[in-house]
Amino acid sequence: MIRITSLIRPRFHCVYPATESEYTSEELLMKKTLAAIAIGMTAFAVVSGTAAAAPKNTSVILIDEANFAGDAVAEGLAGKGCQNVSQDNMATSLQVNGGPITLWSDRNCKGEKLVVTGDVANLADFQFDNKTSSIFMG
User: Fold this and answer.
1) What is the 3-state secondary structure of 104-137?
2) What does the DSSP 8-state code read for residue 21?
3) Are 82 and 135 in contact (CB under 8 A)?
């Protein structure tokens, strides 16, 4: 079984089986809900009959393995401002939805920083592997 742990604000934790046949009906509903939320973050807002881009800097998924693969543990964060990660110094790769974010080595967006504009397959390439303690978005 592939183990993927998701943490999304408000904090919530689950482990997903490797195949859909191993899911309970509640787990399938949760999976579909999380997928809908992720899709919604990239959607466009319609304002006064014209399409306006959804706000940038909306979400990031931190993964504890390089290249987004393997028996990975992941944590998702969404929103704006400074957010402390719950799994301190865990991230090796990350996926960004929406634009540049800033990774910080200490809690409360302090310490060393790295500005990221897109997905990063291996934070070791930037000397920031297993260093992320907080993130600033938007």
Assistant:
1) EEECCCEEEEEEECCCECCHHHHCCCCCCCEEEE
2) G
3) yes
Of the candidates 83, 78, 122, 116, the residue with the CA atom closest to the CA atom of residue 99: 116
Largest CA distance in the chain: 48
Radius of gyration of the chain (CA): 16
Query: Who contacts 55 (Cβ-Cβ below 8 Å, separation ≥6)?
Result: 80, 98, 138
Q: In what order do the strands lie in the sheet with 81-84?
A: 81-84, 134-137, 101-106, 110-116
Place of tokens 């090796």: 92
For 44-71, write each residue's pLDDT tens digit.
333 334 444 444 547 999 999 999 876 6
Please, how many CA atoms are within 13 Å of residue 6, restricted to the half-sphere of its CB?
17
CA distance 40 to 57: 14
